[in-house]
Specification:
Strand order of the largest sheet: 2-1-3-4
Radius of gyration: 15 Å
Distance between the termini: 46 Å
Helix content: 40-55%
Strand content: 15-25%
Largest sheet: 4 strands, parallel
Order of helices and strands: EHEHEHEHEEH
Structural class: alpha/beta
Length: 161
């Protein structure tokens, strides 16, 4: 079995330009060392691409991300919404409930709203795995979420009426 890490090579799929792109980001305060780094990774991508209309809202934790993203999506103001959170496994089943809640909430929003909702919730076994994915050894998943938001906003505009 290969232990090679699979990462998205964005050079193979360049980012489209989306005129007047507006993005809402809802970011969990829990594990803020990680969520703050993910948020910064996303903001760095938007800045490099010349997008400035980014709204950031904070919620207490990962469970609250779905509500925050739903409120943003329902405004009709955003071309994409990003949910940023981090859940680190502990010794209780709480991890599973929180992860399931966020995953199902994001899937529900994508199925029922006209705005793509990007899932940027790290679900890791320990803090080091989270750090590695928030600007450490494995890049920054927040940056990848920003790229996905741009691509999905472009996709949505391609198929809008």
């Amino acid at each position: 079995m290969s232990t090679e890490l699979h990462q998205n090579d964005s050079s193979l799929h360049p980012l489209p330009h989306v005129d007047g792109l507006t993005v809402g980001i809802v970011c969990a305060e829990w594990n803020d060392q990680i969520t703050g780094a993910l948020l910064q990774g996303a903001l760095d991508v938007f800045a490099r691409q010349g997008y400035e209309d980014i709204t950031i809202a904070h919620v207490p934790g990962t469970v609250e991300l779905t509500y925050g993203a739903a409120q943003m999506a329902r405004t009709g103001r955003y071309d994409a919404v990003i949910m940023i959170g981090c859940v680190i496994r502990g010794g209780t089943p709480h991890f599973d409930y929180v992860c399931d809640n966020a995953t199902q909430g994001c899937a529900y929003l994508n199925a029922t709203q006209d705005v793509p909702v990007i899932f940027c919730v790290l679900t890791t076994d320990d803090m080091q795995q989270a750090l590695d994915r928030a600007g450490g050894a494995l890049c920054n998943k927040g940056a990848e979420a920003a790229e996905a938001a741009i691509k999905m906003a472009h996709f949505a505009r391609t198929f809008s009426k």
